[in-house]
Structure formats: C-alpha cells, structure tokens
Amino acid sequence: MSKPLDGVKIIDFTHVQAGPACTQMLAWFGADVIKVERPGSGDVTRSQLRDIPGVDALYFTMLNSNKRSLTLDTKKPEGKEVLEKLIRESDVLVENFGPGALDRMGFSWERLNELNPKMIVASVKGFSDGHHYDDLKVYENVAQCAGGAASTTGFWDGPPTISAAALGDSNTGMHLAIGILTALIGRDKTGKGQKVAVSMQDSVLNLCRVKLRDQQRLDRVGYLEEYPQYPHGEFSDVVPRGGNAGGGGQPGWVLKCKGWETDANAYIYFTVQGHAWEPICRAIGRPEWIDDPAYKTAEARQPHIFEIFKTIEEWLADKTKFEAVDVLRKFDIPCSPVLTMKELANDPSLRASGTIAEVQHKERGSYLTVGSPIKFSDMKPEITGSPLLGEHTEEVLAGLGYSRNQIENLRESKVV
Ligand code: COA
C-alpha cells in the first residue's frame, strides 16, 4: 500500500529520544529515513539499559523502527563528502545535537541551504535560539523543569515533580514532526526549503498552557477555586502544585478501590463534572444529595469535596477498579481505571488497534513497542524492527553511486 510520505527522503541525524521519536513517526507514514550514526558506537541508546547483552537496547529499538542505518564519520573529510551527496538528494535533515555541533561539523544552515535550497533543516534544542540559556545541553527532566511542568506537578507539600510522560523528549519530537510537515507543504507552494526549530522548553510550556491560564487568574483574584488549596488553604503568588486535581474546572481525584491496601494501582480517576452530578449521586447510591443545598452546586460542594470523595471511596471499597468503571460508564461518568504498563501491554483493544505492536528484530526476536497513536482510514502504519548499526551502509552508499571498491576503502579508513 502506498503511504502519504513515500518519496520523502530524510537524513536522520538524531539521537536519544526527542529527534528519533519525530523521524520514527515520519518513517511509519512512508518517509525513507536514513539514520546517520557514528561508526562503531552509533546512537548512545543502542547500549543504554540493555536487557540482553550485546543486543540493541529496547530504548533504541522502540524509537528507531522503520528506519535505515548508515554509519558515517561526518567529521572526516571523506565522511563530509558522503553527507554532502546525501544532502543534495534529500528533502529533510533532522538533528538534535547539542548547541552548535552541526555548525562545528561544517554544516551550518547557510551551508546546508547552499547545498540544497529545497531542503528542510529541522532541529531540536533545549532552549530556543537567542534564549539566555541557548548554550545548554538538555535532557527530558531538565526540560520539564524549564517548561513549567515540574513546578506545577506533584503535591503541595512535596517538591517539584517530574512526569513519567516524555513531555520534553517525545512531545518535542511530535512538535517537530508538525513543523516538518508544514514546511513540506510550504515548499510545494514556494519551492524553497526552510529551517524549522523547536525547543524542548517551548514544547513543554505549550502543554502547560492551562497553568499559564491559572497564573493569570491567580494574579487577578488571588485563589484558584478548583485547586485542593481552596477554600481552606493558602495561596502564594505562583500557581501551586495541585496533586491529582483536574485542570479543566471539574474537580476530580484518584480514588481507592477494592484491594488498594496491597495493590499500588487499585485506583480509578473519578471526575465530579457539574452536569454529571445527578447521575453520580444515583450511581453511588446517594440520591438525597441531588437536591441537598450543601451538594447541589459546584460552589456548595467545593468546601467539602474531599468528604465527598471519601464517601465515593466507601462505595468503591467492595469494587475492583474495573468493576467500578463498568458501573460508572452506565451513568456516563468520565472515569478510568489507573492502568499499569503490564495491563496496557496486554490490553486486547490496544493490540487490535496497533497502538501496542509486536515487532520482530533480527537479534532480539520479538518485542513490544507503542505503534502509531494516529489512525488513518486509508493507511495502517506497519511497524518494522529497528536497523542494526550500519545495516544499510552499503545499500545507501551504492545508491549514491559509490562502487564496491570505494565502499571498501571508506570502511578501511573507518569513515563508515
Ligand atoms: N560523526 C562524527 N561526529 C559525530 C557524529 C557522526 N556521525 N554524530 C555526532 N557527532 C558528534 C557531534 O558533532 C558532536 O561533536 P562536537 O561536540 O565535538 O562538536 C558530538 O558528537 C557530541 O554531540 P552532542 O549532541 O553534543 O552529544 P552529547 O552526548 O554531549 O549531548 C544531548 C547529548 C542530548 C544532551 C545534546 O545532544 C543536546 O542537548 N541535544 C539537544 C536537545 C536534545 O535533543 N536533548 C535530548 C532529548 S532526548
């Protein structure tokens, strides 16, 4: 089946997570993604947190499927020559090196634009160009702190907290993918390539939009009515950490279900949405609350919302998280069991939709990965195993016109 990005050639100069997540997604959708890696070692994630000695780590295999791997020392003159050839015939170059690394290698935006004016050059950095921290190297958790996620995540009596979700890495990669696709559509109109830059700080902040909303509300009125601190606690002049409170104006909390004493994930997320109040009261066997002035409105409920949650927990005490959701769904109440990675890995619906995909790898056998979260009516992305280091070096060089002898010479001089 042909794919929308068939024919788009991408030089994938990325490593770790932010860049690879972006190029992997473009590869799923049909782009020819050539991952350029240092001979001998390759992407550092190939050997990070290995579970099988000598075999590419899951960290690598789960972020580099559907790609080809070319080993190339781009600091050596012969390596630069190969790269220049590749640049001349590619549509996109994606990189997430530390600040200035590409310039130091001799491939500034000006040089790349001169080599191929139609090429889109896409970069991830920790901070945006011109920012007072734009010289810093950045990893995931650093970005979560820089983008406002850490100061607003966790409990008010604990320290700033990092989310397990890759808000700094994969999220930035997704922003970059949108930027690249936009630039490709732009190029169809203008015939010109352009530079696309996304910073991890900006991408995290984009997801913390509602916290900037809350800062402005706090500045104006001095409190935030949907936070647990209201109305009995104190607010300072910055958005506090709100524990498990809902961010959209509907109070919600993580509530204990049957077995919570021994199972750390025997919980559901329960939302007390305004218009669902009546069904909530019926579902939990408290019909008398429907018209009780102490419970009837969101304002009336807020001062004793934790007492309400406690009553709901009493109702949940003899129900597993799955049984509870099965009751609540009949009343149209937004809720979900707190699912573990083990439960997600074995979820039949996620397997059927391809969101959890089982993939074959030449050396490790089969492994699970997260497939495309984007579903199309005319295309089902097929996830293939990640490439071994340099698996496609010969194929790519031959495609650039190198003879067998020339490739052998490049190998001997450790350029590839
Ligand atoms: N051949 C030769 N040299 C290569 C090469 C290749 N194929 N690929 C990379 N290199 C060189 C680079 O040119 C650079 O050399 P230089 O610093 O001497 O100029 C060197 O490898 C190291 O690159 P760098 O990206 O700085 O690696 P690092 O391990 O020191 O830092 C990060 C890692 C992730 C912190 C850094 O790349 C970074 O901040 N990236 C931007 C933000 C980001 O994406 N963070 C990670 C999110 S998962």
TrEMBL record:
One of its GO terms (molecular function) is formyl-CoA transferase activity. Pathway: Metabolic intermediate degradation; oxalate degradation; CO(2) and formate from oxalate: step 1/2. This is Formyl-CoA:oxalate CoA-transferase. CoA binds at residues 15-18, 38, 72-75, 96-98, 104, 137-140. Involved in the catabolism of oxalate and in the adapatation to low pH via the induction of the oxalate-dependent acid tolerance response (ATR). Catalyzes the transfer of the CoA moiety from formyl-CoA to oxalate. The keyword Transferase applies. Belongs to the CoA-transferase III family. Frc subfamily. PANTHER family: SUCCINATE--HYDROXYMETHYLGLUTARATE COA-TRANSFERASE (PTHR48207). Its EC number is 2.8.3.16. InterPro entries: CoA-transferase_III_domain (IPR050483), CoA-Trfase_fam_III (IPR003673), CoA-Trfase_III_dom3_sf (IPR044855), CoA-Trfase_III_dom_1_sf (IPR023606), Formyl_CoA_transfer (IPR017659). It catalyses: formyl-CoA + oxalate = oxalyl-CoA + formate. Keywords: Transferase. HAMAP family: Formyl_CoA_transfer. It comes from Paraburkholderia sartisoli. Homodimer. The active site is at D169 (nucleophile). Substrate binds at G248, G249, Q250. GO terms for biological process: oxalate catabolic process.
